[in-house]
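Whiteboard transcription, Tuesday session. T.W. wrote the structure tokens on the left side:
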């Protein structure tokens, strides 16, 4: 039940977020590790078993953890419990992370674009807001944090499309190139909105480092939507490292 254990989990399972946290000030890292480790645990819960009931039980376990007033003796649940109470994180927002991941268990398609948008808001948007809130962002920063998180979640999700299809999922409501390009355009619009209002984020700014790849990846899709289906969404290592360094030094999203 240590912060170090949470950091090790993120390093192994979510290297991009690990890099983002390591670029943040040391004081921010201790608050981000438990949150990102929790996100990793619920994100992978639907994929560690082929039995839907077991996957449902894993997600319910995390929802029970969030609802309890005393911490469990678990390497992530313990530090997460402390973070929730220290930073007064909203339980309802946390709970939407495992609740939304129930969709990942089954092969049903999203019913419509609104359902897809809600999934990205509950996962990517909610996580970005929780990270910013843990670092002290004020309540009025929530819309812009969610906008940036939605765009970041979209970029990550589009990168996962080939793998989701290989696993028998139907990840996109509309997979036509023009529809995929529109998704990317919507994501870039969200990033622009967040950037215009970034002054609101205050001390929560290091949370935005998690969005370091979103804009260039979505620009790739906007110009070449077939990159999604063909699994060609990627940045070079040089571009990745340079962009993260630039964001860390300038504080821009």
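and on the right, the sequence the group agreed on:
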């Amino acid at each position: 039940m240590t912060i170090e254990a949470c950091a090790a989990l993120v390093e192994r399972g979510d290297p991009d977020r690990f890099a983002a946290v390591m670029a943040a000030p040391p004081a921010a890292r201790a608050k981000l590790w438990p949150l990102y480790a929790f996100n990793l645990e619920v994100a992978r819960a639907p994929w560690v078993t082929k039995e839907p009931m077991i996957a449902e039980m894993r997600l319910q376990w995390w929802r029970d953890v969030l609802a309890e007033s005393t911490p469990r003796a678990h390497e992530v649940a313990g530090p997460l419990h402390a973070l929730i109470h220290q930073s007064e994180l909203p339980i309802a927002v946390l709970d939407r992370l495992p609740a939304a991941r129930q969709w990942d268990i089954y092969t049903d398609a999203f019913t419509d674009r609104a359902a897809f948008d809600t999934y990205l808001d509950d996962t990517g948007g909610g996580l970005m807001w929780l990270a910013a809130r843990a670092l002290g962002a004020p309540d009025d920063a929530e819309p812009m944090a969610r906008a940036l998180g939605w765009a970041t979640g979209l970029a990550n999700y589009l990168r996962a499309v080939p793998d989701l299809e290989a696993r028998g999922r139907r990840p996109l409501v509309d997979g036509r190139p023009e529809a995929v390009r529109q998704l990317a355009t919507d994501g870039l619009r969200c990033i622009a909105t967040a950037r215009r209002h970034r002054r609101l984020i205050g001390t929560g700014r290091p949370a935005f480092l998690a969005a370091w790849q979103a804009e260039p990846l979505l620009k790739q899709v906007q110009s070449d939507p077939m990159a999604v289906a063909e699994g060609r969404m990627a940045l070079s290592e040089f571009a990745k490292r340079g962009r993260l360094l630039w964001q860390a030094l300038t504080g821009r999203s």
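Someone added at the bottom: The CA atoms of residues 158 and 228 lie 6 Å apart.
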